[in-house]
Every structure is written in C-alpha cells, then in structure tokens.
Amino acid sequence: MPKPALLFLKRCYKFVNEEWQHAVREALPDQGFERGFRISCMKHLVGWEISPEREMHLGYGLDTASGTSHEIDIVAKHTDVNAIVEMKNCQGVLPDKNDVIVLFAKILDYLAGNPALLLKEICPAFMSNAPFEDSGLAACLGLGIHPVAPGLRPVPILVDNALRIDFEFRRGLKPSREVSERFDD
User: Fold this and answer.
1) Which residues share a beta bridge with 146?
2) d(Cα 126, Cα 80) in Å, to the nearest integer?
3) Alpha carbon of 100 to those of 28, 32, 74, 142: distances in Å?
4) Residue 185 has pLDDT above 80, yes or no
5) 28: left (phi over 0), alpha (psi -120 to 50) or beta
6) How many CB atoms lie within 10 A of CB 144?
7) Are 99 and 141 in contact (CB under 8 A)?
8) Distance separating alpha carbons of residues 109 and 100, to the nearest angstrom
C-alpha cells in the first residue's frame, strides 16, 4: 500500500478513536461526524484535496456507468491515491453488510464508467463511530474496504505496526517473553 494511503487510514483511525470522542456534537443528523472528519483531513493531510460536502461526482466531475450520481461522504485525492469514505454516526443501528455493499456498488459504478481512476491506488474506507455488525465487518474485509471504528484498526495499519515491531526486534530490542510470544502468534 502506498505510504499516502497508509497515512490516510491512520488519520481515519485517529479521528474515530481520539478526536471524535472529545468533539462537540452539532445539531445535525450525524452530529457533525462527517464535517468534523473533513476539517480534520484538511488540517492534517498536507498535499491532499478533500471533497466538499455532498460530493456527487467523485471529486472529478465524473459520471457513473449507470448514469446515476452517487453521494460519497468524503473523497480525498492525492497524487498517488484516491480515498473514498463512507461515514456512519450510528444511533442504535450498527453498520451491516447492506451498508457496505451500497458503498462498494457506488465505487464500482464510478470505476466502470471511468476506468482511468484505476491508474491511482483506490483506498476505500468505511468509518463508523460504533462497532460494526459482524456481517458489516465481514463484508468490508471481503470486498477490500477498510473498516474503521473505535478500537478497530484497518488491516494495513496492523501490518505496518507489525513490520515496525519486527524491525525493532531485528535491531536488537529485547522484548519480554510474553511480548515475544504474542508477537510471534
């Protein structure tokens, strides 16, 4: 995964797990979840172009293969990556497989009508302020969409963390036996 995509996913995780937990809620249906993340991206992601609210053309003025415009919550563009994000501030109903499949279908419709989008890495993410229903998490993982929720790191971040730990071990860091066994597991 390109470094900018990894940095974007880290921003998603930090927002959900740290910033949103302490954010003032707004009088909006999503309590400002989407707006807060958009502002966080504009503040912290240097070199990225962040879509405006209610983006209907994937940030490029594009049409879909079906001719139906789809709203995408956040489109973050970098020279190497297009990040496409669905955001859910759950009020009692956890994201399930249907929510994830709808995002996948939107992305596929844009890609089918605009194959040149595949010249850049596509980084699809589904952010939730609450845990995923099991079917939603399974759908994310099965469709290659990065799930982000409190306490849930996207797989590329886990891989990056494991590689960093392994590097430190190879440099001579001597972990406790328990830590070493857990890492090996």
Assistant:
1) 125
2) 20
3) 23, 21, 15, 10
4) no
5) beta
6) 12
7) no
8) 14
| C-alpha to C-alpha distance for 178 and 40, rounded to whole angstroms | 37
For the entire predicted model, the pTM comes to 0.89
Q: Which residues contact 61 (CB under 8 A, 6 or more apart)?
A: none
* Residue carrying structure tokens 């850049």: 120
Q: Which of 122, 87, 121, 79 is nearest to 16 (CA)?
A: 87
- 172 φ/ψ sector (left φ>0, alpha ψ -120 to 50, else beta): left
**pLDDT value, residue 156:** 92
CA distance 182 to 75: 37
Structure tokens at 28: 């909006």
Note the helical H segments in 75-176: 97-113, 134-143, 155-170
Distance CA 30, CA 127 (A): 12
Nearest to 149 by CA among 140, 3, 43: 140
Task: For 75-123, write each residue's pLDDT tens digit.
Answer: 999 999 999 999 999 878 899 999 999 999 999 999 999 999 999 999 9
Strands 74-77 and 121-128: what pairing? unpaired
What is the rounded average pLDDT of the residues 46-74?
91
User: φ, ψ for residue 77 (rounded to 5)?
Assistant: -110, 135
